[in-house]
Design brief:
alpha+beta, single chain
Length: 269
């Protein structure tokens, strides 16, 4: 079966402190966006997990979250099966857009459908939390406020549809590094969109290391068609909330920051 795996942006990301288990306590508002990966998931008698991907930089072994999702599904259900997962990447990795997490959630949902196990969202979310902190969000794939290490979710009112421009330079950011070097009590520019105060506590450490990112954000805020701009997750994507009709802003961004800049116009779901 073929399934889409949406990306996300964090409209709010507060890092409250380190937990005894080594993770960080967070509060975040995540919303899915129209950018998505596409996965073909099939099962066959026997055993084995085969992952294929059109992006050579993405691992196809146990280092890929989709591989781990298939293994976790088999262990929790007690089912023995072989599976082939063909992944067509549209969401860049190391971008703060949740691409790998969304792919893993999509595999759990696909295997549930293919095996007709009808586990329900709650059981799938428990499996997802075992794989990664923000993977449970993508099971229901709708706006949610998440706490804990990201696995405690409360459905949030869907924000009014927002038009977004995503900009990602040709380098990733390590999520682990960003959290390790987070800086407490660093003031940031307050921006309000659709009644939501946008904030990302990880901007301070990431911007301090990757000096291009604050320059990109500042440039976006200077553009007349931009309501607000912020880094998503741990970066390296910076997104702008757009107003008005379609604009050539993506083309201007490439002229300003180079052709290696990845851009995508999309919208919140």
């Amino acid at each position: 079966m073929t399934i889409q795996a949406n990306a996300k942006v964090n409209l709010v990301l507060r890092v409250l402190g380190k937990r005894p288990d080594g993770f960080h306590e967070i509060e975040t508002l995540m919303v899915p966006i129209s950018l998505s990966d596409e996965l073909d998931v099939s099962i066959f008698p026997g055993t084995g997990i085969e992952v294929q991907c059109d992006d050579p930089d993405v691992p196809t072994d146990a280092g890929n979250l989709v591989w781990r999702a298939a293994a976790v599904f088999s262990r929790h259900t007690g089912l023995t099966f072989g599976t082939t997962i063909v992944l067509r990447k549209r969401i860049p990795h190391g971008a703060g857009l949740g691409g790998g997490s969304s792919d893993a959630a999509a595999v759990l949902k696909a295997l549930d459908d293919l095996h007709r196990t009808s586990l329900g969202d709650g059981a799938l979310e428990q499996m997802a939390a075992e794989i990664g902190s923000d993977i449970p969000f993508f099971i229901r794939n709708r706006a949610a406020r998440c706490r804990g290490r990201g696995e405690i979710m409360e459905e949030a009112p869907r924000p009014i549809p927002l038009r977004l421009l995503l900009l990602k330079p040709p380098f990733p950011v390590s999520t682990a590094w960003a959290y390790k070097h987070r800086t407490q009590n660093v003031p940031c520019l307050t921006q309000t969109v659709a009644g939501i105060e946008l904030v990302n506590d990880l901007e301070a450490p990431v911007f301090g290391k990757h000096l291009l990112l604050p320059v990109m954000k500042a440039w976006l805020l200077e553009q007349s068609e931009v309501q607000a701009a912020m880094m998503s997750g741990s970066g390296s994507t910076v997104f702008a909330v757009l107003q008005g009709e379609a604009t050539p802003l993506a083309a201007r961004a490439k002229m300003r920051f180079g052709e290696s800049l990845w851009t995508c116009e999309c919208h919140t779901e």
